[in-house]
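Subgroup meeting minutes
Present: P.N., E.W., G.H.
Scribe: E.W.

1. P.N. recapped why we're keeping a running log of single-chain structure predictions: easier to compare across weeks, and new members can see raw inputs and outputs side by side.
2. G.H. added today's entry (791 aa).
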Amino acid sequence: QPFSLRYPLIDGQGNFGSVDGDPPAAMRYTEARLSAITGELMADIEKQTVDMVASYDGSEEEPSVLPARIPNLLINGASGIAVGMTTNIPPHNLREVAGAVRHLVDNPEATAEDLLTFVTGPDFPTGGVIMGTSGIKAAYSTGHGRIIVRARHSLEQAPNGRERIIVYELPYAVNKAALVAKIADLVSERKLEGIADLRDESDRNGMRIVIELKREAKVFTVLNNLYKHTTLQSTFGVIMLAIVDGRPVVLSLKQALQLFIDHRRNVILRRTRFDLEKAQERAHILEGLKICLDHLDEVIKTIRAASDQDVAATELQSKFGLSERQSKAVLALTLGRLTRLERGKIDEEYEQVIKTIAYLESVLASDQKVRLLIKDEMDEVVKKYGDDRRTEITDLEATELSAEDLVPKEDVVVTLTHRGYVKRQPLRVFRAQKRGGVGLKGAKPTAGTDAPSGTREEDYALHLLTTHTHASMLFFTQSGRVFQLRVHEVPERERQAKGMPINNLIDIGSNERITAVFVRPETDSEAHYMLMVTKNGYIKKTAMAEYANVRRNGLIAINLQDGDELDWVTPTTGSDEVIIATELGKAIRFGETEVRAMGRDTQGVIGIKLGKGDAVAGMATVIEGGDLLVITQRGYGKRTPLSEYPMHHRAGQGVLSDRAADAGGDRDAPLAGRPGGRDRAGGRDRGRRRQRVTDLSWIGVWLLIVGAVAIVLEGAVAVMLTVRIARRAEFLNARLKSEQAQLTSAVDRLNQALAETQVLWQPYRRLLRWLGHPLTIALMQSFARRRAAAR
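Output recorded in log:
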């Protein structure tokens, strides 16, 4: 049975049973023959390589052990029980075992650890996954071990959106039909939750067990329960017990391999002695034939004069000095072999036999040549029958699986909307676009009734995070509480789907809303502290370790005064620089070291003093060589080098960052970014896109011109932007040099054109002066604001 033996020894035709436990057909319906690899077990048996013993009735002889050019006990394994002893040797991969044999032949002092580099573990015919290597090491070192094998599966998504677990390989010796029945019983008894449908879709193309989950079920929880209650996870207890010289012995891997090598050495020596004896006999006969051919006429005369063969043989022995074997060979010689051509063939054969005798004698005299023969013969077997490993071995020990062990690590974008719907999508669904684009639809329209005057307000993206499925996220509410959620626990949805309500995943109150989200740093070297800023300008620094164990119902992150809200949180190293900007265009930059670390249940200190009617609009850490990206409520954006913001002390009023916001009632939403980086912009019309920061014009802090429009909206006015940046600072310098060269070239061409058209130059210069007048600029800004308001 191909599912029982790694290398089947019998090639059968007909029904020989199945992995479902079906019985084989009666012998009258089946046929069988030895498979090709079985011939390697009996190779050279006719050359007296093994001892022969009488059969049970004494009528025949049978080998006490097969010559075996392959270590069948290891590659096919063995299982049985007798006289109070049990053996359970797992099957292995022929190619790996052959490699270990070669290594041990060359290095007799090799350790079990050395051999593990060749034989990585059992290789079951049914495949599967071996969990961890501790059981393998124990089995190969002591002969006893416990190996945990799990079914191999994949995850699919059904057309109806449900998750499916597809099982296509089972642990060794597991009955598939019994497994499916067991799962069905557990579901009907309500011991296994989350399974909506179960089907066995196996056919001639392979095994396929489909386990369809309910919409709310978590894959890793269902799998853990299946591993615990069914044979999707089974244990193979290794007992490497074998009969050695008539005695039962528990063998380590090295001992088993060494016994095979010793057996092969013995077989090769006995085969060589047999071949040498045959070669010497043949040389003796050829020598006699050569003597007769040298005295052909006398030999023929002697044979013709003899009365019978016995007399002729005696005469030949006495006259030519032949032995009894030689004389009989001469008498058996036919007349056709007395030609001159046949004489040449006899001489050639004699020379070849003499070389063979010399080689065989050298093999018997040299252990090195014997070891070389062992390795060469193993190479021949591997070349004929070697194949790839079927069973995968993972370093993960078979403990209770965490979700990360079952979820592939994938870059994703997590979206949290204004109305509290969260979802994740693969990063690959987004593509970079130029500024001024419409973007992709990022969510399905979701209407609400919280807009003024009873109007319907559509949902829009509030937070977008670029991360991976093995990361953790921290969610902060306006009331100062923090919650933790693994990224893979966020349901994956289509690009236009609205997602799942966040309160289904974390226990936030009905009057709470998420105001800040970030991905928890994976190592302590990435961030040591957490910096928080409230709407009223308070700032607080707390060690990241304070939030190592966040309960499901959350923790207090900060104490707030009445009327204040926690709106911005970011991880820091403890020595970063911070910039805080307000809605009326003020910004302050100071060192994080001015804020001492505090416990969780504290209020913080003043970060920026706010004017009347002002509030904090944003906070970010300063990135060396980076820019401050400002997006206004009316859809305008500008990019300013952070170096233009001077350093101040904490609790100051800051400097003016955006006069347009201060003068025209527009509100800022500033964010810091790396040079040449990328951002994601999302509007309240649910359009989202990736946009390079360098596509926004570089505008000085004190320049009056408002930046380029960041995104085109389809009738909505509020824009929410989230920045994720991952490009080197050198890119900005290269881009600036390129733009400077282009600007210089354009100025040169303009001067040349003006020089050639002196008649048109004077009015054109007057026009430029008029356009650059402050009054003209103010009028243009006023016109732009009115037009935006009208739209």
